[in-house]
Amino acid sequence: MTETRLPARLANHPTVRAAHARRAALRDTPGAPAVVDAGWLREIALRAGADDVAAVPIDRPELAAEREHVERALSGTRSLVSLVVRMNRDNVRSPERSVANQEFHHSGELVNTAARRTVRALQDTGFRAVNPSATFPMEMDRYPGRIWVVAHKTVAVAAGLGAIGIHRNVIHPRFGNFVLLATLLVGAPVSEYGSPIDYNPCLECKLCVAACPVGAIDKDGGFDFLTCFTHNYREFMGGFTDWAETVADSTDGADFRHRVSDAENASMWQSLSFRANYKAAYCMAVCPAGEDVVDPYLADRQGFMAQVLRPLQDKVEPLYVTAGSPAAEHARRRFPHKQIRQVGDAGRSRRRIDPDGPPEPDEPPKPDER
Ligand code: B12
Ligand code: SF4
């Protein structure tokens, strides 16, 4: 590091003297780090709560789209470190939404904590590092554009911690898709990097396709972002805006209650007061892939479906779809016992700024269709 000449007043300040002393000591320590030791990093991350970890250099071709975003969060990023935290499978599989949501929220906290603790250890060893949020909060001033700082799935795949299944979640070779991910941005090289795995743990069983209540997952691996966003994220940004507009558009309390049920309002209150709750995640719940996960499926496939898939398919619940969408048709055909709720288009603000996006729907949904 090049030293700039400091004015005497600053050079004699106790903080500056202490910093100089510490730097000198570090210089004199044999093997003072210029490179993060991969073994040390792994141990720190596992002790911090991660279940698996691997690093990847920022100049890998598959990370090209991440570079400008990562650079904005930590200029001079050299390596990305992917952390994996396991979720408890039967919690994610439970048809009771409060059980699954609790698991997602708690695992989100664990992965954020593991990431933050690892960053603290890196900092204290002399490295620059940041841990962008694993889930929310994100950069909402960019909404409806890319609001996430770094794409954790892309990094995990590049680092060799799994591959993307038909449902577009990362499947870890051992833990299956029952994992949440975080990424550390580090301003130094790491001594050893991971590489993509040479097979896909996805079994192509298509249970995820059968489980999604709004047909967001195509059996060939296509994923309809807006369909998932409209239903699963009903109580997140897009659905909330639609809900607020419904409040504004209602003529009085009775009209509002006609449009939105008490249970839906209570659910929105819960999401706003505690944390936004997902409506599904059934694709993840039913996925049998992964060495630690697959046994019950292999032992009795019909039994697995009866125990895991069917309760989610049978659950009576509202399904949020836009009028005339393929999701509305899918829901009506496949899940006639569920309540179809036609809502405003959660993705419309994105379309307003996207000239290539589909046109606005001709008419907003009528109250009696909701
Ligand atoms: C955006 C996002 C979503 C979007 C889009 C999902 C997607 N397939 O990308 C929505 C809201 C639908 C979503 C849903 C879910 N998500 Co999400 N999500 C993210 C986020 C913020 C970025 C994803 C990403 O990298 N996309 C880019 C590329 C890599 O993804 P892609 O699949 O190739 O491309 C899709 C997107 O670009 C999307 N898209 C296209 N245009 C637009 C425009 C906008 C504005 C947005 C937001 C997205 C979008 O559609 C593409 C087609 O698939 C990450 C957190 C993070 N910071 O990384 C979590 C993350 C991917 N989500 C996660 C989870 C758990 C879920 C849910 C299970 C949540 C739940 N509990 O229900 C569902 C699963 C849905 C599914 N089958 O994918 C986990 C996945 C863990 C794993 N094992 O892979 C992550 C990594 C969060 C975490 N910290 O662990 N998610
Ligand atoms: S449910 Fe089956 S098809 Fe879908 S991602 Fe998992 S293993 Fe692949």
From TrEMBL:
Residues 326-370 are annotated as: Disordered. Residues 193-222 form the 4Fe-4S ferredoxin-type domain. Keywords: Iron, Iron-sulfur, Metal-binding. SUPFAM superfamilies: alpha-helical ferredoxin. Residues 331-340 have a biased composition (Basic residues). InterPro entries: 4Fe4S_Fe-S-bd, 4Fe4S_Fe_S_CS. PANTHER family: IRON-SULFUR CLUSTER-BINDING PROTEIN, IRON-SULFUR CLUSTER-BINDING PROTEIN-RELATED. This is 4Fe-4S binding protein. It comes from Frankia umida.
